[in-house]
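Below is our example:

___
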Amino acid sequence: MDFDSYDVGPFFDEMFTPDGQPRPGCRMLHDKIASLPPGEILARQAAAEQAFYDMGITFTVYGHEEGTEKIFPFDIIPRIIEAAEWDALERGLIQRIRALNLFIDDVYHKGRIMADGVVPRVVVESSSGYFKECQGLNPPHGVWCHITGSDLIRDESGRFMVLEDNLRCPSGVSYVLANRRILKRTFPQVFEAIDIRPVDDYAPLLLDMLHAIAPQAANRPTAALLTPGVYNSAYFEHTFLAQQAGIELVEGRDLVVADGYVHMRTTKGLKRVDVLYRRVGEDFLDPQVFRPDSLLGVPGIMEVYKAGRVAMANAPGTGVADDKVVYAYVPRMIRYYLGEEPLIDNVETFLCWEDKARKHVLANLDTMVVKAAAESGGYGMLVGPAATPEEREAFAAKIEADPRNYIAQPTVSLSRAPVIVDDHFEGRHVDLRPYILYGDDIRVIPGGLTRVALRRGSLVVNSSQGGGSKDTWVLGPGAAARG
């Protein structure tokens, strides 16, 4: 099985140049794959899939007819990013996170950016991620977005752009770690020969970040991951990360507020918890402050948080910057707070709440991707070129009925990477979700989750919509020379 019949097509290809030659950082991997005996690559793919099955690496698709628990699709041909490209991305992501954090802090305090008209107040206060109950909160070190996963794409020219930001409970990093483990078994000789930056230290870095934001009074802080429970779509990830970081996995019913602190119930009695990695949304976090019918949260936890006796990552209220309408203003935030030009551009975005933009979107739905402001997982969106006239008409009615809830972006021909299809290779569209940790400082994990639209021609990479993943190799400075 080789790449002789592989069609690069009119897209930017992650492994090949337009004339079909391997890119410099991909040559050694390409040559290794080409040298394998017939059937070997398929055997390695099958072994990788079996490893995923044995490890129980799954996700949940709600309402799926064949059952909800799915093994996460995985393709063993990695996506490679060269050192200089990654260094530029890292600088751009650090810049973006600094600005987003300053924005969230400003929103819940003086609101200068709104008073100055840079971001409209109506956009912020109408966001489903904005909680007036978080006004005046002061998270440790002034950091709100401790864990972020911003989605990046490449266009036809190979330029990286930010598609959206994920600051509520960004998921998927467990697949990054699992993918790497399995690829090390699949291509051990390549790992020995190329300088590939590690991702295995994510769990200890996560733990360091949690300890860094712990209340100062906690000499040996206890951290725990707060999960909604076994029926959550990312429950595998919750258990995996808790185990890897060496922290407790707890549900709301395992926690109680007593004597002004948060405690978890154990067989030996109550034990104080100093830091919570929060995978429960604000709505459900504290029934005394947010939704009174919530059974997932901890009554009284917000009072403890305000008193500085427990820390949470991400801080409550962070989701205001997760809104896809707010995303459109991030370049303005960078200029406003940092006095710099954005190092990574946004995809061109039309805000349907603006009359002129809405008219343009409605007149060009057949060329647009339209997204609901607060949806994720590929839900609540329209891919105009792939939609029927009836689907576009129905979506136009939704936009007219609730314009604040929708943004639109021109359909970008995402870059492609080779995947195994039956007994040959075909190109499939990909994106990239790097993960950023922010405690004492900002750390960008080298690589991230490359998501793959496994259906031919599809631009939707989400696992809930039939997407899969690849390992992402970020090369060290000397890798290309050695390759």
User: Anything to note?
Assistant: The chain has a mean pLDDT of 92. The CA atoms of residues 201 and 445 lie 9 Å apart.
